[in-house]
Structure formats: C-alpha cells, structure tokens
Amino acid sequence: MRGITVETKICLIAPYDEIEILARQVIREMHADIKVYRCPIQEGVSLAKKLKVQGVQVIISRGGTAAAIRSQVDIPLVEIKITGYDVMRAIGPYRNSTETVGIIGFENVVRGCRVICDFWNIPTREFMINGAQSDIDWEDVRDSAQKLIDTNKINLVIGDNVVKRLGLKTSSVQMISSGEESIVQAVLEAQNILAAQDEEKKHTERFRTILNSIHDGVVAVDETGLIDVINPVAKQIFKIKDEQLIGRPIKEILPNTRMDAVLKSGVEETGQLQQCPGGYILTNRIPILIDQVVKGVVATFQEVTRIQDDEQKIRQSLYAKGLIAKYRFSDIICNNDRMKRLIELAKEYSKTNATVLIQGDNGTGKEMFAQSIHVNSARANGPFVAINCSAIPPQLLESELFGYAEGAFTGAKKGGKPGLFELAHRGTIFLDEIGDMNKELQTSLLRVLEERKVMRLGSDTMTPIDVRIIAATNVNLKKQIALGAFRMDLFYRLNVLNLPIPPLRERKDDIPLLVACLITELSRQYNWNHEAFPDAVIPFLLSHDWPGNIRELKNVLERIVLSMQAGQEPVSEVEMIMAEACSCEEPKAEKVFFSGTMHEIKRKAVAVVMQEVGYNKSKAAKILGINRATIENLL
Ligand SMILES: Nc1ncnc2c1ncn2[C@@H]1O[C@H](COP(=O)(O)OP(=O)(O)OP(=O)(O)O)[C@@H](O)[C@H]1O
C-alpha cells in the first residue's frame, strides 16, 4: 500500500479476495472510475486514512472493515451490504435441514441470516460480534463462538469472512459473500454521494465567494449561538485575528452583537448602531426561522463612515456640476478696515462647524464670504450647495431642500430624489435670502438644525446629515420677527456666528481698489487695454451711493468699458451712465419711460428693474421676461 497515487474520488477496499475479484469485474462492466484495493481487515483503517489525505472523497467497503472505517475515519463510507439474495444464496442449500445452524458474525450478517432462517423454519443459534474492530478481543470471540458450537453440537456455521478468520472447529462453514447486485448498489450509492458532494462544494464555493466579495460584514450563528459563518469583512471590522472561529460561541468572540438576544426573542433588529473597535457600525440582526422556530441568526455590519463615503460618492457623481465653491478669501477685494476685520473674523469662523448668518444688502459679497468660509474649512473637499430661497416657489423649495421619496406625489421620480441638504452632506449649504422663506419651511429648517437629520417628503425615515449651514439675508430679520414673519427660535439658531457686511456706500475707500481690480478683469474679458481707463472717472464713482453695491459697480464698469470700446468719450459717457443710475434710485414718473427712442425706453426699463433687484441680471431678466443676453445688450 506504500506509494499509492489516486486520481479517482471513489475507492473500494476489499477485505478478501473473492470480493476484490467480483468488485473489479462489476466496476469494469459499469465503466465506473473506482480504484479497488485488496487489504487485510486490520489494515483497512490506515489505508482509508491515507486515501482521504490523497483526496479520495468516498470509500466503499464491507463488513467489519466498513464498520471500522466508519467509526475511525471522517470520510463518507458506503457499505457493501449483505443483501437478502446473498443470505439466501448461502443458506438455500440447507433449507430443508432440521439441524441447528450456527450464525456467527457482525450484527448485519446475523440479522440478515436470522430473517431468512426464520422464513425457512431452520433452527438457529446466534453469536453476534459487537464493537469496533480495534477493540475486539478475537481470542475471546473465538472461545465464545467455539463454546456455542460445542454446546449446541453445531455442524454447520453460516457467516462471512470473519468466521473463516476465527478458524472454528466445526464440520462445515458456509460463507456469505456479497453478490454482484450488492456491489452495483454500493457503487451507485457512492457515485450519488460524490455527485451530491460536488454540488454541495459548488454551493459552498459560490456562497463563500459572495460572502467574501460583499462590502458588509456577515456573521451567522446556529440555534445554540455558535458561529457557523463569518466573512473577512466582519473580522476586519471587529479586528479579529483568530483563524478558527467556526463553532465558537458568539458571546465569547463578539459579546455585544445582541445576536444571542435575537436568538431568544426571534424578533429582527434592523438599522441599529453598534460600537466596534473603530467607532460605530450599522447592524441588522435577522432571525433564521424554520417552521416558525428560530434556528439561528444572521447579522450584517456596515461601517458608518463607509456608508457615508459611498453616499457622498453617489451624491457627487449625480450632481457633479455646480457643487463647488469658486471664491476664496483672497478674491474678496477690499481696502476698508471694517471689511478686513470681517475677513479675519470669517477666517476664524471657517475653523468651526457653527452656523453663520451673513447680513448685508444685495451685491455686498455675502455669497463670496460663504464660499470662502467653505473653502477655508475642513469641509473644503465636500460639496458647496447654494440656494436662493426667494428664487424658488415655496412649494418647490421644500422638495428642493429636503428631497422626496419614490411615490411621494404624482410624477415623483422613480427612486425619489435627494434634497439639497442630502447633497450638501459633509459640506456646506448656503441658504441665501433666508428672510424670504415661509413660516412652514422655517419650522422644517429649525428641525433640521436641531436634529441634524432630514426626512424626504413622503418618507418616514430620517437620514442623518453632516452639513454646515450658512444663511444670508438682505432684510432685517429682527424686524421680520417683530412683524411675525420670521421665527425667533430659528433666528437664534442661525445667528450663532454673525457677519454683518457693510454696504459699499459705507466703505467707499474700497472703490478705487475695486475699480482697479475689476477693470483689469474686464479688460481681460473684453480684450481691452485697462490702462486706457481714465482716472477722471473715479470721482464720479466715489460720489455715487451704490445701492446695488459691488454688483452694481461691476455692471457700471462693464458699461464704461463697452462704451469706450465703441469709441465714446469716457467722462461724458460715465456722466450719462451715473445720471441714469442715480435716476433709477428714485424712479421718476412713468412718462420718463416713454420718452426717447424705443431703445432708450428699453434701457431705462432695464435700469429701473436692475436697481430693484440689486443689479442681479438673472432676476431682472426673469421679471422682464427677456433673457440675460438682452439685458446685457441694453445696459
Ligand atoms: N469684495 C469684493 N471683491 C470682488 N468682487 C466682489 C466683492 N464683493 C462682491 N463682489 C462681486 O459682486 C457680485 C455679487 O456678490 P455676491 O453674490 O457675493 O453678493 P451677495 O451679497 O451674495 O448678493 P445677493 O444678496 O444679491 O445674492 C459677484 O459678482 C461678486 O464677485
């Protein structure tokens, strides 16, 4: 048996020659891929062990050898049974005998013979050999069997191979040998086992691949709380180094998973936060119910930060454009001390996560400040989401801010839609013109500020969000509170840190620097020589009050550049522009609009509306029902 090489998955161990010969013949006829080994009964176990090591998956054997292998080797074993035919073949010649027949052998042999002898009324005396082969005292067995023969004057003994081995003194011994059909049956059974094993292996491998490829940790326990599945992610989450975890109590390995509690209660626990070595994880514990009886529990674990990262990636990929802040503090042009102090203050604010309220007239640079705070903060890599609360109708603003669930209303997008708060997760949301938000939305916003969670319209689940809020207003919120139009509690929640941006008329010392920088920018845009800009214009600019602030200044400078490019004389053109701008501050009687050419009337209309909307071209275009380009042409 030394140096066995095995390619086949099934082997037959024949304990005696007759069975070996018959087995080889049957296997040949069946074209079965089975190797046959002839092996003495006492060496069957060690051969089976060797074959197992070499990859054999099923062993076929018979009698005592089969019993020994089954009890000592962990390998599927198919026994070549003693069939009724085998016994009948052996006893048949003696069926008219009135003499007592001795039946000696292992249990299966004795029982088989007993049934047939009883059927033919043959008197019998039995000796059953019990126990595993290795524990049997064969001397003792021989003595006892011989005693049975002698006492009962038995001339014929029926049994299998062991009877031969015992060397009993009796007139004749009739051997029961397994016939062809027993071997055929054993071969078919072994082949079925092998096929089932292969199928099982495929399932196990598929299951293992799934478990190992998913990003969640998975642990399953049986009904007694012993681990029967644990995937690598679960080990990683819980920082478990042990290799051997299967079969160990969950309580010992992961004491706080509450899987044992679910085993007892049979009630699933989903979406729970649980502490683990690296922080918190989100876990689901589901009982395995078979016929309403808890047969185990499966738990899944997801790292919260990973979920947030994934959500962030999805959010960012869905809204790749428009969520980036472009301004930084260095873009805010100023010379004024108050402004410089405000920038320093805003830089300090950017180091915190606290809510900021920016107050200031239209066009003073509130959004520039908001963007700069975001860019200067630890959230710089997160999204910057800006929304003008006055530009969107209130009913749309709600779903814009909070999103909606699938089926929340007719026409709701499949899968729902995330709101801007969700989009701003791990970043900053800039709520411009917050003073225009209606009271209902103010209440919802207050809830978000307090709970840091949002609920989509039509949904019943809250999504935790990590968003820094910066709000801005051009109206006096305290006055709004007094009028009952703004919630006082919301005001205090928003006004944690405050940035009051002064209007340009209160910081005219900013004008020369602003003009220099903005003219350089414009000359680049219009391919114009900025040195041609006449200093003589500056006093005119300084004398104006700039109700539209820097936005208005930018617009006026743009007009100056364009008119100079068109060959106009700068100072007189500026005088005209400034006169127009001033006239817009206090609109004259309507007839002013209708004097002059059509073009002039249009220009005046645009100028009046621009002033009303704080020189916001988009807003003016919306009000006048024309596009931005037309506005730009008329300026
Ligand atoms: N100090 C500044 N330096 C350079 N540009 C400025 C400055 N302040 C404002 N601006 C420019 O003026 C325009 C208006 O600025 P911004 O949108 O930040 O103002 P706002 O106060 O948020 O206006 P609104 O209230 O109308 O939304 C922008 O084009 C911005 O670049």
TrEMBL record:
<dbReference type="Pfam" id="PF00158">
    <property type="entry name" value="Sigma54_activat"/>
</dbReference>
<dbReference type="GO" id="GO:0006355">
    <property type="term" value="P:regulation of DNA-templated transcription"/>
</dbReference>
<dbReference type="InterPro" id="IPR003593">
    <property type="entry name" value="AAA+_ATPase"/>
</dbReference>
<dbReference type="InterPro" id="IPR002197">
    <property type="entry name" value="HTH_Fis"/>
</dbReference>
<dbReference type="Pfam" id="PF25601">
    <property type="entry name" value="AAA_lid_14"/>
</dbReference>
<dbReference type="InterPro" id="IPR035965">
    <property type="entry name" value="PAS-like_dom_sf"/>
</dbReference>
<keyword id="KW-0067">ATP-binding</keyword>
<dbReference type="Pfam" id="PF06506">
    <property type="entry name" value="PrpR_N"/>
</dbReference>
<dbReference type="GO" id="GO:0005524">
    <property type="term" value="F:ATP binding"/>
</dbReference>
<dbReference type="Pfam" id="PF02954">
    <property type="entry name" value="HTH_8"/>
</dbReference>
<dbReference type="GO" id="GO:0000156">
    <property type="term" value="F:phosphorelay response regulator activity"/>
</dbReference>
<feature type="domain" description="Sigma-54 factor interaction">
    <location>
        <begin position="332"/>
        <end position="562"/>
    </location>
</feature>
<dbReference type="InterPro" id="IPR025944">
    <property type="entry name" value="Sigma_54_int_dom_CS"/>
</dbReference>
<dbReference type="InterPro" id="IPR010524">
    <property type="entry name" value="Sig_transdc_resp-reg_PrpR_N"/>
</dbReference>
<dbReference type="InterPro" id="IPR002078">
    <property type="entry name" value="Sigma_54_int"/>
</dbReference>
<dbReference type="Pfam" id="PF00989">
    <property type="entry name" value="PAS"/>
</dbReference>
<dbReference type="InterPro" id="IPR009057">
    <property type="entry name" value="Homeodomain-like_sf"/>
</dbReference>
<keyword id="KW-0805">Transcription regulation</keyword>
<dbReference type="InterPro" id="IPR000014">
    <property type="entry name" value="PAS"/>
</dbReference>
<protein>
    <recommendedName>
        <fullName>Fis family transcriptional regulator</fullName>
    </recommendedName>
</protein>
<dbReference type="InterPro" id="IPR058031">
    <property type="entry name" value="AAA_lid_NorR"/>
</dbReference>
<dbReference type="InterPro" id="IPR027417">
    <property type="entry name" value="P-loop_NTPase"/>
</dbReference>
<keyword id="KW-0804">Transcription</keyword>
<keyword id="KW-0547">Nucleotide-binding</keyword>
<feature type="domain" description="PAS">
    <location>
        <begin position="203"/>
        <end position="254"/>
    </location>
</feature>
<dbReference type="GO" id="GO:0043565">
    <property type="term" value="F:sequence-specific DNA binding"/>
</dbReference>
<dbReference type="InterPro" id="IPR013767">
    <property type="entry name" value="PAS_fold"/>
</dbReference>
